[in-house]
Amino acid sequence: MRWLFLLLLVLNVFYYIWYQQEAPLKAKDVAPLSLYKGSQQEIRLLRETGGAEPARRRDECLVVGGFAGREQLDALRQRLLSLDISASPVAGQLPGADGVWLKIAPQSERLLDQTVLGSLSNDFKDLKHKIIFCQGIATGE
């Protein structure tokens, strides 16, 4: 009985050594989940965002312009009025932006989407648009 026990013990040791000779499987490197998410850090329902566009905060305003002269700004304002988009000229300079600008009324911002901005950019060469904080912006009206 003792010899049988020693034989099984030797066979187990032999089997263990033989099994360790095989190449051990390496653990697969897994990238962190934050790399897969990219710019989308959280899930939002379409109802929460108001459509495909990201939701704007109440203290943010859309401004268009950036022209050097007042006549281009007046032409842009007339064009926006023909599209039922209400805009008022910004008095003074915007921080970090050169030129003259129009502040789009909050109820008209939904009418001024990327397609309308693209067609306006074709007609007005130097047209720019920005979303800035409304606090401290004085309009000319």
Question: Which segments are poorly predicted (pLDDT under 50) over 5 or more consecutive residues?
Answer: none
Rounded mean pLDDT is: 77
CATH class of the domain at 57-134: Alpha Beta
Structural class: alpha+beta
Give a brief outline of the structure.
Helix content is 37%, strand content 18%.
What do these coordinates show?
The structure is a single chain. The protein has 141 residues and is α+β, with helices and mostly antiparallel strands. The chain has a domain at 57-134: 2-Layer Sandwich (Alpha-Beta Plaits). The chain is 37% helix and 18% strand. It is built from five helices and five strands. The chain has helices spanning 2-21, 33-37, 46-49, 70-82, 114-123, and strands at 60-67, 87-91, 100-104, 128-133, 138-139. Strands 4-1-3-2-5 form a five-stranded antiparallel β-sheet, covered by helices on one side.
Q: Which tags fit this structure?
A:
alpha+beta, Alpha-Beta Plaits, single chain, rod-shaped, 141 residues
Topology, element by element:
Elements: H1 2-21, H2 33-37, H3 46-49, E1 60-67, H4 70-82, E2 87-91, E3 100-104, H5 114-123, E4 128-133, E5 138-139
Antiparallel strand pairs: 1-3, 1-4, 2-3, 2-5
